[in-house]
Amino acid sequence: MFKQMAVRVKTEEKEKKQPEEEKNLERLRAMTGPLTAWYEASRRMLPWRECPTAYSVWVSEIMLQQTRIEAVKPYYDRFMEALPDVAALAEVEEDRLMKLWEGLGYYNRARNLKKAAQMIVREYNGTLPSDYKELMKLPGIGSYTAGAIASIVYKEAVPAVDGNVLRVLSRIFASREDISRQQVKKSREEMLLKVLPQTDPGSFNQAVMELGETICLPNGKPLCESCPVKKLCLAFRDHLEETLPVKSPPRKRRIEERTVCILEYQDQIGLCRRPDSGLLASLYELPNVEGHLTREQLPMAFDLKKEEIIQIEALPEAKHIFSHVEWRMIGYRIVLGRELGKRLIPAKKEELKTIYPLPNAFSRYTKLIK
Fold this sequence. Notes:
By secondary structure, this protein is of the alpha+beta class. The protein has 2 domains: 12-237, Hypothetical protein, domain 2 (Endonuclease III, domain 1, Orthogonal Bundle); 254-366, Nucleoside Triphosphate Pyrophosphohydrolase, CATH 3.90.79.10. Helices cover 45% and strands 14% of the residues. It has 15 helices and 7 strands. It has helices spanning 2-42, 54-64, 69-82, 86-91, 94-101, 108-123, 132-135, 143-152, 163-173, 182-195, 201-214, 234-237, 298-301, 351-354, 363-366; strands spanning 254-265, 268-273, 284-285, 288-290, 309-321, 325-336, 345-348. Strands 1, 2, 3, 4, 5, 6 and 7 form a 7-stranded mixed β-sheet that branches. The termini are far apart.
């Protein structure tokens, strides 16, 4: 008896859910035309959009992860000038690659680009595969990036679902599902797969992303009056646009206090290299230690003798936020009267601009190097 009741409840839930899904699919079908027309008329002119190739779309999409479009533009231009194709990326030296990526953060993205380029040269004759499933086999390429490349360049009717797309669809459907859940993303991909235009799926994918980036904004009030599909949006109809989407809060960050030093001798700056694994793996850095040290503690902490120090200058405090760690830093400039020790890499000040990749975490202090 109880088993029959459970089956009946599940059946009723399925029947109730089905019409809702069908209605959402109809909304997606109805928004395809006006949204694509709006995109063609209003889209921003971006360097990777004008003559898209698989390589340019790939590089731009990897750069755009965790980074704003306006911030990416100069890095993209510099990167493409230095490494114009897959072969150049596959052969570039690690330090050169990291220097080109300097300032974008999340450096494993760059390492995966090179790994994938080497795989493309080795297994795909130097050309990015034109199939979505084959693209997914490459290091650093997930469903979103594979969907972007396959739909924009190769016209394969596959979705490209990122945070912008999830936010737009949550508002269109007035959905209270948590968009940080992988199952929700998968569900949206499956829905889009049913309605994507077969002739130009890339334009539709980009249109939804563009809507999320320029109108259906993540923080504060979205620009609903300018939205080409507001008549189809349930969140707009029900005044829920500022409460949706639902997203679980990020994990609380661990706070770390650090003391950073600019160690100078004539025209040289002392650098260290981080371990090959972990946070900021293999990158160069300014010498730093855990904790906030006083002037008196500096010589012992940085293996210096007091008589070798000409000057100690306190520098401003700084903060840098990683995904799960927050560094709260104090800094000192220490001018030395002898050559930098063996534990340090002596870098000429001019070389900091051209050779040594230093992560953004130290930018507050590298800007103070005269």
